[in-house]
Amino acid sequence: MFSRGGSMLELRNVNKSFTVGARTLLNSNKLKVADNICLTLDQGMCLGLVGESGSGKSTLGKMVLGLEKPDEGEIWFEGKNLASMSRKERLAVRRKIQTVFQDCYSSLNPRWPIYESIREPLKNFEKLSAREEKRTIQELLISVGLSPDDMSKYPHQFSGGQLQRISIARAIALKPKLIVLDEAVSSLDVLIQHQILKLLEDLKEQYLLSYLFISHDLMAVRSISDQLAVMYKGQIVETISCKKPLSAMQHPVSKQLVASILPSHPRDRGKARITPSFDGTQELLLAANAN
Ligand SMILES: Nc1ncnc2c1ncn2[C@@H]1O[C@H](COP(=O)(O)OP(=O)(O)OP(=O)(O)O)[C@@H](O)[C@H]1O
Ligand SMILES: [Mg+2]
């Protein structure tokens, strides 16, 4: 099938830096946000990317979506190098890789009824009659657990969880192969998080999707992913199967992330361990304990 061993997505030695601070003639400060990243995501799988804030997760997601370009290295999708694709091939890939962001309020136009927001990708890529469009949108709303009647409502008439369902409906409208989910459940409360994660799992089976699931929330990532990659300062410091217990994680950064998970009952939170700091990560632990 694909020329490169069936991987849906492959990142090979991807490097990316941003210039930060004032740039002078003689020097400019570079912040390395992707440092020789090598990752593989097989078809139908979910790769979880976890790491502290600023570690480079979203930038990596943007490179997969073609919104940022790697300085060095290659990103292969369905056996083809994104950088050497023709315009036509790139356009085809744009519909095959979709995204769901954390901030559903800003990703939906507040002045548009939901119908228009879900219709947008269909309008751009499919040539459907008005009747077919309406039917497709109704089916999409049903598949994300909303009512077809919801299509005439406006974003402010929905809860955060419902808005995220609408963002997901829009992401699956073009029947993509891969969805980059960047902190897609992070702003939701725990119960709604569970519901959306369950919905994502069901849709993954139904539409044969692959996910790159990005979050700083180790438990959310682990609950949906097959493979987990831990990112720290632009590097993937550990990858591990989600079938393995958390205790199998070896890298100090991974251990810090595990240690920062709060016990589910407030009574037990005082007992949350603060393990020796790893290059500033203790702040993360203290912040977690303060919540
Ligand atoms: N366009 C840009 N120009 C300059 N610096 C940038 C740019 N985009 C991101 N950065 C910097 O790159 C680093 C990594 O950012 P990124 O958004 O990828 O982190 P993240 O792991 O997604 O963090 P978070 O968990 O907070 O979302 C940050 O220090 C950020 O300030
Ligand atoms: Mg981010």
From TrEMBL:
Q: Where is the ABC transporter domain?
A: 9-258
Q: PROSITE patterns recorded for this chain?
A: ABC_TRANSPORTER_1, ABC_TRANSPORTER_2
Q: Which GO terms describe its biological process?
A: transmembrane transport
MF term (GO), any: ATP binding
Per the record, the coiled-coil ranges are: none
Q: What is the lineage of its organism?
A: Bacteria, Bacillati, Bacillota, Bacilli, Bacillales
Q: Which UniProt keywords apply?
A: ATP-binding, Nucleotide-binding, Transport
Name of the protein this chain belongs to: Nickel ABC transporter ATP-binding protein
